[in-house]
Every structure is written in structure tokens, then in C-alpha cells.
Hints:
Number of domains of chain B: 2
Helix content of chain B: 25-40%
Radius of gyration of chain C: 27 Å
Oligomer: heterotrimer
Amino acid sequence: MALDRRLLLRGAFHGTAVTMALPLLDCFLDGNGQALADTGKRIPTRFGTYFWGCGLTKELFVPKTVGANFETTQQLASLEPYKKKISVFSGLRAVVDDNPNFQHWSGLAAITTGIAPSKSGEFDSQTIDQTIADAIGRGTRFKSIEVTCSGNKNESYSSLGGANTNPPEVTPLGLYTRLFGPGFQDPSKGDWKPDPQVLVHQSMLSVVSDDRKRLLENLGARDKARMDQYFTSVRELELSMDAALKRPDVVAQVDIPGAPGELSVNKSVPVLQKVVPQMARLIAIGLATNQTHVFNIALAEPGSTIFMPGDSKPFHQQTHEEPIDPVLGYQPVSADFSTHSMKFFATLVKELDGIKEGDGTLLDHSLLLAYTDTSFAKLHALDGIPILLAGSASGRMKTGYHVAGDGSPVSRVGLTVQQALGMPVDSWGKGSMATKKPFTDVLA
Amino acid sequence: MNGYRRLGHHLLCTVLTLAPTPLMAAPWVRSFVVDKYEPAFHYGGRPGFEKTGTIEPGVDCPGGTLPMLDYAKVTKTSWRSDEEVASWVKPAQVTDLQTVHYMQERILSYRSFRRDIESYINPFTAPDPGMPSVVGKVAEGFNLDGNVKTGRFISPEGEKGIDNAFYRAVGCIGSYRGVPYTAAMSVRSTDKMLEGMYTMVIRLSGNEDPMNDDAATLEIGYSPDHVNKQTDGRASTSYSFRIVRNEQYSKVKAVIRNGVVETQQVPELHTPRFGWFPNQMGDADFHQGRIRLEIDRDGFASGLVGGYRDWRDLYTEDTFTQSGATVETRDHHDLVGMYYALKRNADGMPDPKTGENMGISIAYRMKAVPAYVVDPEKPVALNVSPGDSRAIKKYQQMRTIFRNGTMTATIQANPKGSSEGAPQLRQRADGSWTNSDGERGAQRDATPPIGPSTMLQQRVSEVSGEAPAASLSAR
Amino acid sequence: MQGNAAPRICLVFGLLALALSQPAVAAATRDVANLRLLTESEYRNSIRDIFGADIVVQGRFDPARRTGGLLAASSTVLSVTPAGLEAFSQMADKIAAQAVDEKHRAKLVGCAPKDPKAADDSCARPFLERYGHLLFRRALTADELKSRITLAGTQAQSSHDFYAGLANSLATLLYSPSFLFRHEIAVPVAGSKTYTLDPYSRAERLSFLMWDTSPDAEMLKAAESGRLNTAAGVAEQVDRMMSSPRLETGMRAFFADMLELDIFGDTTKDSVIYPKYNAQVAAAAQEETLRTVIDLTLRSNDDVRNLMTTRKTSISRVLASIYDVPFNFNEEWMPYEFPESAGRSGILTQVSTLSMFSHPGRSSPTKRGVAIMDVFLCEPTPLPPANVDFSIVNNTSGPLKTVRERLLAHATTPTCASCHTHSDPIGLTLEHFDSLGVHRLKENGAPIDVSGTLQGKTFVGAGGLGRYLHDSPKFPACLARKLYSYGSGANSEDVDASVYKDSYKAFVDSGYRLRTLLKTMVTSPDYFTVVPLSVAETKTAMNTAK
């Protein structure tokens, strides 16, 4: 059947009183269950974050046009090949209300928690990746994997709240060993175990279905149809649980690589240019083989000290000491570092998009959140913090947009991301960043 | 601003001012909240040049904005060899650039005539490098002493005798030089103000007419209520703000002619301070202070605040809000040079005993949007967080120490827990450098390259005992 | 079973004992007249009242659809989509987990299992019975209870955790249709051909209308004992509910629906033209209107028609900046009365009404006029014809300077005039207020003419409009109609005014007091009269067969 079942259901119930032809289910399922609604898809949706410090250069990254088909700007040039799969958000604000603006901290905490932090270096709630991992991270070996690219184990921004952060892998070899070393679950062999919670939920659902007959009594035809719709929904949940009890297929075309060699890891840009692709590739393969569904990768710390060899000042120092060029209107050396930060993100995007999976790529079945700590590092400004999203979250996200935030709080992106992943969240964030409005332009 | 109007006013020639259409005299109040504020430095570069952060030469600074300090030159002293200078400024075997930076900060902090003297606290113990002054003739400000001979500037509207010696002394500094409201430090300060760090409000009142009133009153002070920023970057209009009558509050008489407000000149005018960190907040005490505001047709205001300010306080605000080394490396100027420049340009507030000029003439410019300034019905204080309270105490302590030292020419020690002096670094036997605390240093030696954030956090807690929010981690 | 009951649930045990002694619900003569899906606020308030205010409810609710001017009408047509069920199931899990966690179990579970790692039916039973009763708004049937106790036991055993089993079982109550749907059950009236709502349904009607929440223990007791079958019993409960401050919750929910305040969720303003508008303004504007309405209709017990003319309101600091008045900071909300010169009139000129029914960049007399007619007069306007040319109206830089000029030019076309001559004059009188609700006297440099003529009467400005609406019988009639429809879940366009004519008369005679309208409406013997669908369908079949 060619009908989009979700559309049909939506269309039917947002209109007049309904009489639906029953049964619904048979006509929407083929033998393999391939056409199940999102809850039953056997290719899981993945989520990941990419963090870089010290922001971007407003003059060089904000696309001039808003909406779809935005024109690629200089600082986003490395993302041009993936333009249709990314979205760019400009003009968003982190609003701290009565909390201080902790430099190189409040902005990033606002994006990943929706809350202005009350202490520097701490989060006032768990970060969004952990909330998402609670929802989509079941059934994999690791709830989430954290990686840092420049060798410092303190540089992780994934947290369960407070001062602790989830410890990251700091070298490619370390990441490889974690993912594919001892304990590696080859999805095509060995003992894969289903999530026991699914069985629990199945028993619960059956108790509700048992009431069906009695509840359908004494109803008029219209209300009978509505009650039946409820039980159809129950049946659909049951089917998606059946699917979850079966070993997931690895539909990605990927080979497990050999271990990488020892590599020195530090903040020099040329060294990062060797390390980041390795990390990105390992993450991609880890996702494709369902070792985890959630990852976090940090380029460096919020006051990013990546540097060019020979140059006496790292990125962060440049942002404060470099004068604004009178002709260009921005700080050129700082801008170069920001451009590198985007190139490293493009590396990650490339690795995920390079793995074919099902009818698309791993990137298509993922959602990546790229974020930073400030809009203008020289001032530690919080107004206009850039955020990028990549991947279409298995079709729930529309991509290729430039969304002008217009002073909206950054928490709207976090809300949008969670809704795109099918999580039952209607509001997110606190204080002036409390929001109920996702960016519906990019929600499918 | 209309030059004719200004000139006419200053000549006190009422014939030249047009008589307004008489309105019914009635009590009136007009209030504002400031949403842009900065030292009134006149940019003397290319006319019509609009871009931010200008560095190019101009009639104000023919050499351009002051360049980055040459660390090697600045830190060379009689007791420090060239090799030692090089080992700190360009240390070999230290691959972590943040460590290099801290080493540079440390050596900059100690360049007095003796090795153990911290130079930002005791700038008089280091030689005067001679900070280039502004040589242009034009400056914004006021003729504070009524003497056209003493103020060597002419205002953009042609008024002679403008006293703005602060501008002369430090007007070529990178953080402050540029087209109005675009210099890096003022953008930073305005950004913080609009994010709610502090709120400055003004209330005008009178009994005749808001555009023409001989007996108006101007009040200025802090408000505990945050500015609300609009999507166009300005403060949102018509918001209400409570005004706090603490030591930063002033009430002065004013005369208004065609929307131009001139307050009387008062011996002490207390106002909120220009700043970008909470510990800078406090009283900007202008001696012989006065304010000029121009109100446009839409009720928006722009103006000047001026007077003589204690020059040591100006040095303190710039230096000890963070640390001297942070400021020198970021703002590209020599703080020791600034100390001497301020001292030699000081032109007011003579000390009755010594005759030394304790004050320097200065002016700040501002823009403000219409607001409602109300007296709170219940007493209300400004919001100061515990962290900010501690920072303010430390800052006050540094101010006192610095003043005492420079006024009595007595060398002061760097107090425990201050942000001055940069990290304690020591050299190991193999020539490499590490952080001073032996134990932690040893731990870190064993691990691969240390990230600056770790060192930073440790160093700051060692030095100041508090979380890295305030001083050195902040740039 | 009462052996280890905590003192604070004695009342509930009492009523449970009563409940268990009642016969099971008999199927034969209990037709469902209406199946009503709980609204989001009814769901949330029910959870709050049943489990406690500190239980967090986080989830997404399927959107409702406004019919006959009310979202409440969709309760009788919406069902639970697959995504909706998934959301309810996740919410249920989270609520149940909180209810049995260490912080809450002492208060909510009230008994301790013999072994916390094993099943314990004697502790699970009273818990499931009690909450089942409150959630289903009736006693569970023997089968329903048995299956829940069994589930709790098997889950406790397989997970070695009594509380996990209990939570899972509780969750099945929370997403059951018996919680999510209100079953309005019709029973025949002895000695007549009419049907009336059974006492449980009456309990639901009264509670959801007046307090926007599930019937509490006392109300359920009145249902079980049959007290609600009597006029005196109904009057008792009505008086109890109306004298409680919780009446404000119920009426807020009603007015939020009638005044369409949810539209703020979709309202955006052009940030270049209106840089002051943001989410805080939207939230404050909604609150202002609700406060004004509640203050006038409930606290002051004033003539509701004064909602069209009052200049009194409550404003916050944010709103003070929009209305351009000083704020006194004594409390978060400040009572304020507009001077006459402000040209404001009732809720017609509050930021809410003015900004919700405008374009992002400019005001729209048509939108405002259409909305006012729909919301306050129960006169919805049909959609414009498909081939309409909007270019003249939308050209703000052409020769026609004000909106009035552009609209009037349009209204000379007969197909357009039929609607526009009704809606536009209303909106045109409000043109002294821009898209945000800020006062202005000129548009594009030209002074704004705020006169309007409707059915031969001319009025000027918002004050004139307010008085016109105040004096029109259509507004109170519409209010009564909508209140009735909200309570019964009907489409207000389909309701026959005769069903509430007595209470309407009392309303008018009282000087248009909302309390009078409400009380007489729900205590009227006809309020609970329903037609079960089986009868309605039979009639329809018979009619079509003719």
C-alpha cells in the first residue's frame, strides 16, 4: 500500500468526526515488518554532539538568506558537500537571567541543558545527550561514548548533572580498544540480549488490551471507532515491542578496521588534522555496528587553545588579543581557527555520511548537534551563539535550512532535537530559556 | 548635535536661542535607562570611517593604536639577563602555549628595580617607558575649570578649553580607540550591561516643560532591575526601573534649552561606573562633575558625563579587575606606562597638603532609551552574588594597597590570594617547566600533555582560593 | 486489608468499603452518550490532585482542534493516535515510578510489603483499588482489579522488586482508556422516554467544569451513594465547588478556551517592526487577560458585560513596558486602571486580543473583527472565496495610506462586502492599537479614523465598540452558549439555546452574574439530560429510511 499511514492517521483525526475502515494494520505491514511506523524501525536512530570552543565569526558564517537552500558562507565551505543534510541556526541567545555569565561556560551549558548554570564548570541538570541516551540508548553495549580530540581527559561536556562529566577516550587507540577490543559485541554473532524492559512493557500492554471487549460495549458507531483507534494504537505498540525483541540487523555496509597505531595527541592543528579523522571514523563504525547509539566528541576546551605551530598564541588568546581588522571588520587569525573548527566538524559529518545503511547513509539515520560556548569570544558574548544540526534523524528532521533565531533562546534547539528523536517532551529549559516552541520548520 | 545650538548655549546668549512655543507649565518627569556607555575618546582617523576596532594612524594617534608590547624589551631590567628574559618570554622545551603565556605574564609582573617587587602593584618601582599621548586637538568633554587655557582640546562643536586629560594620556590604547561605541572594551561593557550585569538609570524632572526648563532636576544611579534587550540590540523602551539611593546616586539641578540638558557643576557627582566585571561596579566619583544630555524628538537621549576622577582609581579599575598581566597582554598597553601617563597628565583635585594633582579630567559618553524610573516603595538593594562579593572585597583590598604604596612611595607586597603575579612556575632539573606545587606537578609530569584548563583551574585555586569564574581564567 | 492502613487514607478506605459493597456496573441499560478524551490540563490536574503537586508530568499531548470556538468540543471527537499512546505510556511510566519511589511511597503506598523483593498482594490490592478508583473515576470491576494485582505480582517476582511491579501495574491504569476517556453514561429516567447521566458522569461533569480536574473523594462518594441523583445532592456539591477558590482554576480553563489564548503559541511578530515582542510578553498577556476576567466575574462578582468596557486590569513589568506605564514593583502583578484618555476598553484592547489577531508586522481589522464576532458574539465568519485578490489590501506603500482606506476600497465588491461589512467596522474601531497592542494615533503619517458603523449604529474607537458590545444581547447569550458547550463537550454551533434557557434567564435577571449563570445551569434538571447514541442512531436510521 502506498499510503503514508502516519499522514492518514493525522489527517483523519485533525478533521471531522471519524469513521475509519478497520482493520488498519494489515494493509500497512508487509511480511518483514519493514514498513512499521517510527517506533518499530529496525535501523535505530543515533544521536551525537560535536563541541568546539570560541564560536565562529559572524561576518563569515551567517548565511545571507534564511530558509532552505541557503547560500554557503566562507566559514561553512567545508560543509558544502553535505549542505543538504545540515541546518544552521543563527541569532540564538543564551539568557542567564540572574545568574552570572560564566565565561566560556554559561553558553555551552545553556545549549545542552536549557538552564543557565549556577556554578562555573557545572551543569544544573544532566546534559541533553544523556536524556536522549535514556530514551534511545537502550539495547546497546554503551549508553553513550565520549571522545576528546586533544588529549585532555577533563575535556568532556557530557554530564549527569553537577560537576561530574562522563570520562572521554583521549586517543584513537583508546577509543578503538573501548569499542572493538575485549567485550566487543559482534552483532552478527554471539549472544545479543534484548532489553528486558520490553518484555515488561509487553505484559503491561496486554493487561490493557484485555479490557478491550468490555470497553467497546454500549458505544455508538462513532465512539466505537474512536475506541478502536485506541486499541489499534495498542496493537502497534505491541508490534514495535516484538521488533525490539529481535536482534537488530546491522544494515550498514562496514568492516571493523584494524587497530590504529600510536599517535601523539595534542592541540596543534596539524596533529588534530590526523587525529580527528581517526576518531570520527571509529565513532561512525561504532554507531554502525550498534556498539552505541549516542556519542559526544569535543574538539578542545571552551577556551579553545588549539594552535598553529610557529604561532605563539593559541586560539583563545587570539580571540582576546587580536585586534579587529579595520578593513575586514573581524579578527582574521581567530577566524581561521573557527574555520578549522568547522572543518573538523565536516570530517565527522563525512565519516557518518560515508557509511551506507539501508536506503541511505548512517548520517541519514542520525542527528548531530554541533555547538559552542559563545558567539563572539572576545567579549564572551551570548547573543548569536551558532548551532548546527546534521542528519535527518531517520526522516524526522528536515535539513538544509538556515534558521534565523531572532533572539530566541538556545533551548529551542534542544527541544527541537528531542522532539525529532520522538521523545515525549513538550517543554524544556528554565527561566527565560523555558520554551514550548520547537523550530517546526525543521521538524518533519 | 547642532553646533549652532551648542555654541549659542555656551555663550549664554539667550537671544540666540529660539523661544519655544509656550506650553502650560506643569510638573513633568522623563526617565531613561542607559544602554551604551564608554569613555569619550575621540577617534581621529579617516573621516567617515565606520568599521570597528580601528588601529590605523590618525590625527589623534599618528603612530596608530599602541602596538603589542615587546615583552622582551619591557621585561629587561638591570638584574635580569637577556638569557633569563628569553627563557621566560620564549621558553624552549615548553610545548604547551598556555604555559608559555603564563610564563610571559609572570615575567611581565616582575620588572621593577628589584626581583621581588610586583610591578603592577608598585609601578613607581619600574622606569617610565613613556606611553605615547594623544596629540590631536579635538576631544569630547567639558571645560571643567572654566579656563580655556588649561584644557588643551577643542570640542567637535568648536568649544575651547576642553579638559579631558585622561583621553590625552591613554587615548591610543587599543581597547578604547575607535569610532564611538565600537572599541573592544566598550562593546564588551555594553554587552554585559545589556545582559544584566548592571543597570544605570537617569530621571529628569521639572515644573515647566521637558524641553525647556530653568529649574529641572537630574537624578542618576544604579537600578537592581535588569535591562531588557530587544532583538535590534538596544534596550527595550518603556520598562520600569527602581532607582537605588546608595553612594552611586546623585541628584543635581539642571537647565534645559530645546531639549539640551545641562546640569550644574557640582563638587562631587556620584554615578555608576563603566565596567565589564562585577567587581568594577561602584562609585565613579566625579569632582566638579557635570552631565549634558540631548533628548531627541523620539525621547532617546545621548550625552556626556564629566569631571575629575581620582587617577589612581582609574588605574585600579583597569588593572586590578582582573590582573595586570591579563590586561597588558590583551589591551596592548604598558600598565606601568599608563601609571606614569596618568600621573603626569593629572590636572585636578590638588591634595591640600602636598599639592599633588590627585585627579585627572575625564568624560564618558552614553546613549539611553526612554524608561520609567521609579522610587521603590519597599527598600531594595542591588543583587550581589556571594562570589561577586568576594571578588569586590579582593578588589578593594588591592586598591587600598596600591594607593598606600604609590602615595607614600612604599613598596607593597603582593597579598595572598590576589590574582597578581601569575602562576608560580618552576624549572625542573632537565630545564623543562612545571607548575609550582611539587606534588601536583609530579603527578602531571607523568601524564601526556596537560591541557591548559587543568592548569588554569589548579593555578587559580592555589592563588585565589576560588573557582575559576573571576580573575585569570577570564580574558 | 485495613490492618496496616495509614491514618490519612481512612476516608478513602471508608468509601472503598462502600464501593465494594455496590453491585458491579450492569451493562445492559448503560449506554455511552459521550466518550470524551481528557484535555491536557484535565490530565495534568488529575495527576496533581491524585498523586500530589510534586509529581512531574513531562510529555507531549496530541493537539486538540477548536470547533464552534472551543477546544473542549474536540474531546468528543479525538482519539488516541499511536504516537499519542506512546506518549501516554511513557508519561504513565514516569508518573508511576515517582509515585512508588522512596520519597513518595510512605505517603502514597501507605503499606509496606512483607518482602520488598517479592510480590505482596495484600499491600498491592489496597493501593491499586484506591488509585484505580480515583483514576477511573469509579470503582474498578473485579476483573480489572484482579488483572492489575496479578500483573503487579508477576512483575514483582520477575524483577525481585515489589515497587517496580506496583509501578508497572499502576502505569496500566494511567494509560487505560478508562482513565483517558470520560465515559458519559446515559440511564433511562423512570417513567419517561428521556435519559439522564448516571451519577458518576454527573460527578465528572461538575468536577471538570468547575475545577478542571477529576472528581475528588467526596464527589465520588456523592456519586456512589446516589446522592448525585437528587437535585439536593447536586446542589450540595455545586455549592461546595463554587465556594472553593478552586473554582477559579475551572473558570480559567474555560475562559482560556473561549478567548482562544492558546493562539499565542502560534503568534509571531516581525522582530524588526516589533522588537519588544517575545515569549515573556506572550505569557504575560495571557495571564493579564485571565486575571482580568477572573477578578471581574468571580472575585468582584460583577456584570460580565463589563468585560467589554472595564478599564481595570492587572499588569506585570513586561506588560507595563508595552502599555507604556510605570510599574510599582510591589508584587509581580500590579492592579492598574487605564485613564479614559488611553482609549482602552475591556479585554478587547488588552495585548492578548490585539496581538493574537493581527499580522506579524501590522494590525488587521479584519482578523480582529472576525475574532471578536466569533469569540464574543458566536458569529463565525466563513472563509474568503478561493479567487480573492489580496494585493490592494496588502500594499502598504501604495496611495491608500491606512488600513481603513485599503479595506474600505475592498468592501465595495459585493462578494467581499457580505462578510467584510460585518467584521471590518469592528476591527477598524481598534485601529488605534498596533499589532502588539501599543497605542498609536497615526499610520504611515496619516491620522487614523476609528469610527465604525454596524447595522445602522455608529460608534467610535474602542470605547464605542465596547459600549456597543456591552449593550448587545448577543454577548451574554454567546457566553452562556459557550459555557454550556464547554461543559457538555458539544459543538456550540449545534446547541439549541432552549436547553439552557432557564439558566440564561436567571443570568440576565441577576444582572449578568457569571456565578448565577453557572450555578443555575448545572443545577437545572435538564443539564444532565442526554440522548444515548444508540437511540440517536436509531432515530437517524429511521429518518433516513423514510
